[in-house]
Amino acid sequence: MANRYFVDKVPHPNGSHEVHVEGCSLLPESHECRLLGYHHRPETALRPAKTLFRRAHLCAYCAGEWQFNLIAQGEPLERRA
Ligand SMILES: [Zn+2]
Questions:
Q1: With 80 as the cut, is the pLDDT of residue 67 above it?
Q2: Is residue 77 one of the residues assigned to a domain?
Q3: Strands (DSSP E) found in 1-81
Q4: Proportion of the chain above pLDDT 90, given as a percent
Q5: Is-contact 37 48, C-beta < 8 A?
Q6: In angstroms, what is the span from residue 64 Cα to ligand 1's centroid?
Q7: Is residue 79 part of a domain?
Q8: What's the 52 CA to ligand 1 centre distance in angstroms?
Q9: Rounded to the nearest whole angstrom, what is the distance from the C-alpha of residue 34 to the centroid of ligand 1?
Q10: Average pLDDT of the chain?
């Protein structure tokens, strides 16, 4: 199931723009973020976000929850080299 993703238009103090899934409690007001469209995974939402803001990155809260769900499903996290 795809979810809508948004990116903060207002950078954080460190210059980063966070990508959030719709419904994230850290998602800013709608006029302060930009819709990235529907995505199945936070990583694919990050791609269009990075074309808008070079310093875009995933929200640790909602993307972290997604990673947690992956662990719960028994899928491995990113491979370590
Ligand atoms: Zn979030």
A1: no
A2: no
A3: 3-8, 17-21, 33-39, 56-58
A4: 69
A5: yes
A6: 9
A7: no
A8: 18
A9: 13
A10: 86
Share of the chain above pLDDT 70, in %: 80
CA 75 – ligand 1 centroid, Å: 21
What pLDDT, on a 0 to 100 scale, did the predictor assign at position 38?
Answer: 97
- Ligand 1 center to 19 CA (angstroms): 6
Would 59 be classed as within a structural domain?
yes
Q: How far is the CA of 24 from the centre of ligand 1 (A)?
A: 5
Residue 39 forms part of a structural domain: yes
Domain hosting residue 34, numbered range: 3-72
In angstroms, rounded to a whole number, what is the distance separating the alpha carbons of residues 10 and 68? 27
Count the domains in the chain: 1
Q: Which of 47, 43, 3 is nearest to 27 (CA)?
A: 3
Question: What confidence tens digit (pLDDT) does each residue in 6-30 have?
Answer: 999 999 899 999 999 999 999 999 8
DSSP class of residue 41?
A: S
Cα torsion 50, 56, 58, 59: sign: negative
